[in-house]
Amino acid sequence: QVQLVESGGGLVLAGDSVRLSCAASGPSSRLSIVAWFRQPPGKEREFVAKITARSDNMDYGDLVKGWFTISRDTAENTVFLQLDSLKPEDTAVYYCAATPSTTWPSTYYHQTRNYNYWGQGTQVTVSS
User: pLDDT tens, 33-76?
Assistant: First the structure.
């Protein structure tokens, strides 16, 4: 059984940095792709970043490219999301998701419906 548990969110000031963690448990074959999504207040969930099992391929959403960094510690089964230069519009619940599928084009992994497992989310609030 796969479980994903996010942590690291909180209330920060604009310009601050935060590192989110996603602790994963379960068969490694079910965790081939791990991604972060976020859901701002009143909006749909949107793709933030994804990483492969061997950390040999990362992909970012257009709104965060160059600002956020995804990484993975395979030994600890943890995926991190470093959020730098935060802005109030980055306020959202950040979710970790995983899928065993590895053979699709990058855009496939931008869709929430293509992920089998989800964490409960962690709130990041950026105050100006």
Answer: 999 999 999 999 999 999 998 888 999 999 888 899 999 998 88
- Compute the distance between CA of residue 7 and CA of residue 29 in angstroms, rounded to an integer: 23
Contact by Cβ (8 Å): 69, 82: yes
- DSSP designation for 41: T
Q: Over the stretch 68-90, which tens digit does the pLDDT of each residue have?
A: 999 999 888 999 999 999 999 99
Q: Is residue 83 within 8 Å of residue 123, measured between CB atoms?
A: no
Find, among 111, 108, 103, 107, the residue nearest to 46 by Cα: 111
Q: 66 — alpha (psi -120 to 50), left (phi > 0) or beta?
A: left
Q: What strand order describes the sheet that includes 78-83?
A: 3-7, 18-25, 78-83, 68-73
Q: Which amino acid type is present at position 2? A: V
